[in-house]
Amino acid sequence: MPIHSYILKYFDEHPDQRISGVKQEIQLYERRPSIFHVEDQILQLDDFKLPIRVYTPEQQEQYSLLVFFHEGRFMNGNIEASDIACRMISSFSGHKIISVDYPVNLDNANNTFQTCYDVTNSIIQQANLFGGNTADISICGGSIGATIATLITIEALKRNEFSFQKQILFYPITAFKEEIEDSEFLSRKMYNGKYGIDLKNINGFCNSNLISPLDTDHSILAKMPNTLIYTAEYDPFSDEGEAFAEKIQTSGGQVKLVRFDGNIHGLMQSFPGSPDYMRGFEITTEFLSNEEKEVLT
């Protein structure tokens, strides 16, 4: 279908953001969705500290936990830019969310990944301090954050170190390849540099020794937790995201793919209030709450 008119209008008015990305406006606190409690904390690991933000939906003794990784470089993302998304997911699903303020610089993607893996492992080991337990923890991320989230899931399965109940991946980057015009993925050729994404920003992944999600062995993908993947029709990464969903399925894993026609990378953060923005949170809530409905993809 044609790209949504409000998106086309936005880029006509802000042509520089076709490559630099949609500018994220940070809302004043009084304009953000209300939630029972939000607390900034510092997670202490062996040799460094990392900020986290904890979202508590209501007062209760036990919570399902969700570890969240913000959208990173492509979306000018940080823990503040993803605040509204975390508030909405926590409030709607009843999950306590631990949002990780990981470093967005991917010049050393290996270090970034290892930091995120160690932080996640620490959160899981301390699940009781967040009112949760290790058997009821899920993971979620958007864009680069989604890539980091599924890399953590994959590495934990390889090490047999921990596992998740569910994983949610909003428009992940799943192929660590620099090709655009020569790419096997048509969406890269058609949409790079047109709607807020420049593939040059994935050089950090491509120059690392990390194995891309799409190149992960079938035997590992067969053990994946129940997975929800979002793709967007006009996103350069849509074809590889859908290929990753298909590979999980053919490997024997359980996966749900939702394609947002007429939309672009970052739909869960950009253009708040639009129909797809709200639909994305609705489907996420249903997935986490085991109340899934039929979804047209």
From TrEMBL:
GO molecular function, a single term: hydrolase activity
Keyword vocabulary terms for this entry: Hydrolase
InterPro entries (UniProt xref): AB_hydrolase_3, AB_hydrolase_fold, GDXG_lipolytic_enzyme
Domain Alpha/beta hydrolase fold-3: 66-268
Keyword Hydrolase: yes
Keyword RNA-binding annotated: no
Stored Pfam families: Abhydrolase_3
PANTHER family attached to this UniProt entry: AB HYDROLASE SUPERFAMILY PROTEIN C4A8.06C, ALPHA_BETA HYDROLASE FOLD-3 DOMAIN-CONTAINING PROTEIN-RELATED
Protein name in UniProt: Alpha/beta hydrolase fold-3 domain-containing protein
Species of provenance: Ureibacillus manganicus DSM 26584
